Amino acid sequence: MAGFNKVVDSYEAALDGLEDGMAVIAGGFGLCGIPEGLIANIKQRGTRDLTVVSNNCGIDEFGLGILLEDRQIKKMVASYVGENKLFEEQLLSGVLEVELTPQGTLAEKMRAGGAGIPAFYTATGYGTPIAEGKPVAEFDGKQYIQERSITGDFAIVKAWKADRYGNAIYRHTAQNFNPLAATAGKITVLEVEEIVEPSELDPTQIHTPGIYVNRVIKGTFEKRIEQRTTR
C-alpha cells in the first residue's frame, strides 16, 4: 500500500531481513548521492557474500569501499572501478568477482528490472568481450546484444526530501542512479536528508513515487568530495 507511514527510527529496522548472500542495488555515483548510513550499517552488521550492483564501489575507507575491508562483497557489478586500491587488490587476487557493464547499459538494466522487463537489446558492447556468450539479434540491418535486467533483494537509495509515504525528490546531480535503483529492489530503503509533510512536496516534482519504497530513514551525511580540484 502507498498510503501508510514507512518511516523507521533505526538503521537496524531499515535493513531488517538483509542476509548473507543477497543482492543489493545501491544508488549513487562516485561519492555523490550515496546512502552513507545504510552502507555503514551493512558493514556493522557483518553481512557477507553480497552481490552489490552500483555504478562503482566507492573509494578506500568510504562509501561501498568499506564493505571490501572485511570481504563482505563477493561479486561487484559496476561500470567503473578505478578509485579503490583495495578493490584492485581483491580483483587481481581472485577474491572479488567483477562484472564490468557499460554505464548506460547498467542504468537500463536497473530501469528494466524495475519495470518488469526481463531483457532488452542494445548495440553497446557488440563485437567486444562484453558481448561474449550473449544472444545477438539484427534489427534494421544493425547488430544488437541481449542484456538481462537486474533486480535486487534490497535497494539502498539516498534522497534529498521525502514524505512519510516514501515519495522522494533528489537534489541536482545526486539524482544519478538513485531513481533507477529505487525501482529495482524487492525491498527498497530510502535514506533522506529531510522528512517533510506530504503537502510540502509538489506532486509534479516527485522523482520516485512512494509505491516503490518500503522504508524511509532520516540520515546524517558527511558528503565527502571524491576529487577536490583547486587552483
UniProtKB/TrEMBL annotation:
SUPFAM superfamilies hit by this protein: NagB/RpiA/CoA transferase-like
One Pfam family it belongs to: CoA_trans
Family annotation (PROSITE patterns): COA_TRANSF_1
Highest taxon of the lineage: Bacteria
GO MF assignments: CoA-transferase activity
The keyword Protein biosynthesis belongs to this UniProt entry's keyword annotation: no
Keywords tagged on the record: Transferase
PANTHER family: ACETATE COA-TRANSFERASE SUBUNIT ALPHA (PTHR13707:SF60), KETOACID-COENZYME A TRANSFERASE (PTHR13707)
Family in the record: Belongs to the 3-oxoacid CoA-transferase subunit A family.
Name of the protein: Succinyl-CoA--3-ketoacid-CoA transferase
Organism: Photobacterium sanctipauli
Lineage of source species: Bacteria, Pseudomonadati, Pseudomonadota, Gammaproteobacteria, Vibrionales
